[in-house]
Structure formats: structure tokens, C-alpha cells
Amino acid sequence: MARVLVIDDDTTVSQVVVAYLERAGIEAEQAGDGASGLAAARARPPDAVVLDLMLPGIDGLEVCRRLRTMQSAVPVLMLTARGEEEDRILGLEVGADDYVTKPFSPRELVLRVQSVLRRASPAVPAAPPPDVVRDGDLVLDPVAHRVHRNGVELSLTTREFDLLHWFLAHPGQAQDREGLMRGVWGWEFGDQSTVTVHVRRLREKVEADPSHPSRLVTVFGVGYRWDPVTGEPRVGGLPR
After folding, report:
1. Residues 6 or more apart whose Cβ sits within 8 Å of residue 83
2. Which CATH class is domain 3-120?
3. CA nearest 206: which of 215, 218, 197?
4. 6 vs 47: CA distance, rounded Å
5. How far apart are CA 174 and CA 59, in angstroms?
């Protein structure tokens, strides 16, 4: 059973969230502030975190930063009472995978949590397992859920990994933000700035010069395109 850590100082909100998660068959644990939430995550690493932005003491942004140093791939869904785009983008930039603005529908929140949990849990592979994908110095292993560049493992969030995998699977094809939200996030609608922020974060990890990308390039008026280093990305097993 998947386990979700809910960090929110509003007892009413956290109790409702926990009740809906448990009704959906998801184990849930509550924490009322950032410090206790981080302690709970250290003591028993969760499969996902629902994190309020406005927390006493250590705020949600700092909690998210610290979670990323502890568990780089744990999905984080941020709750915020703020509707401004800048606040949502800031949450995504520090490593949140998704966000929901208060007031929210508990059922929608559960669906969002289920979505990030599915993305974070590699499916049981059929035979043969998915092939490793190579593009120049970049190697993505979908079974191990690991990416290496120049032999060094990259620290990617679940969404960053999925986004990179999507681009490598569709080389040379212009992808608009709406299509990426459907294909990578599984959303039929949502804030497209989510895609913009994740592309920027991914560029910082896979590009030699993120300010002048040569792989994950912008297609003006459309969205983005993955330009392979040499021809099509190759698939095949890891070297023995």
C-alpha cells in the first residue's frame, strides 16, 4: 500500500485529505508543521508528500528543498492558498511535482496524488523489458529509473524523468505544452507554466549550457523539440 505524508498546519484540511486518501486505499500520515514533517520523512520515507506552502516555522518551500536533498525522487504535491502564478512557479522551481490551489476538491486532490504515485512506481515490465535509451553522453534506463550523463548519475524528480523519457521517445518532433501535459502529466487541462518550469529545470541538468540549449530546444509558437546529438537516440542494453 502506498503511503503519503500530509504536511499542513490546518488540522481540518489535513484530516479531510487523510480521510479521502485512506478511502482511496492510500495510507496517510499527518504532520502539523515543517519540522515535524521533515522528521517524519526521515523516520519513514513516504511514497509521496502533500505539502502546504504556508507553514509556521519552516515554510513549504524550504521543506520541499530539504525533501529534495533527502529523497530526490519523492513526488511532492504542493497546496497553496495563493492564486498568483509567481507562487505556483516558485513551488515548481524548488522541486514540487504538482500543485493544487485552495480551496480544492478533495476528490481532485486524490486523483492528483494517484497520478504522481503511478508515475513514481515503475510498472512491472513485460518481457522483454524496456530498452536503455542513449543519446550521446546521456543514458536513460527506464527499468532502474536512472539517468547518467558522462557517467555521472543525474538527480531527477519523477516528473523530470518522465519528461526526459518522453522527449527521447519522440526525437525531432515538436511538442506543444498541451500535448506534454496529456502525455507526461496525464492531465486534460491545467496550468501550462508547469511544463515551462519543468523544461527549464531539465535543461539545467542535461544541457552543457542551459541558457543556450542545443538538445531541448524551443520551437517558437509551438513548444519544444528534442534534437538528438547524433541522429536518432539508440536503444539497447547497458554495457557489460
Report:
1. 101
2. alpha beta
3. 215
4. 11
5. 38
The ranges assigned to domains in the chain are 3-120, 133-235
With a pLDDT cut of 70, the percent of the chain lying above it is 87
Instruction: Please compute Rg for the chain using Cα positions.
Output: 18
Q: How much is the pTM?
A: 0.63
DSSP secondary structure code for residue 50 in this structure: E
Q: Which architecture does CATH list for 133-235?
A: Orthogonal Bundle (1.10)
Identify how many contiguous H helices and E strands the chain contains and give both numbers. Answer: 8, 13
pLDDT at 238 over 50: no
Q: How far apart, in whole angstroms, are the C-alpha atoms of residue 58 and residue 56?
A: 6
Pick from 190, 11, 3, 196: nearest CA to 100: 190
Instruction: Give the integer Cα–Cα distance in Å for 98 and 194.
Output: 8
Which residue(s) pair with 28 in the sheet?
4
* Identity of the amino acid at 44: R
Q: What's the CA gap between 165 and 175, in Å, rounded? A: 13
Read off the amino acid at residue 8: D
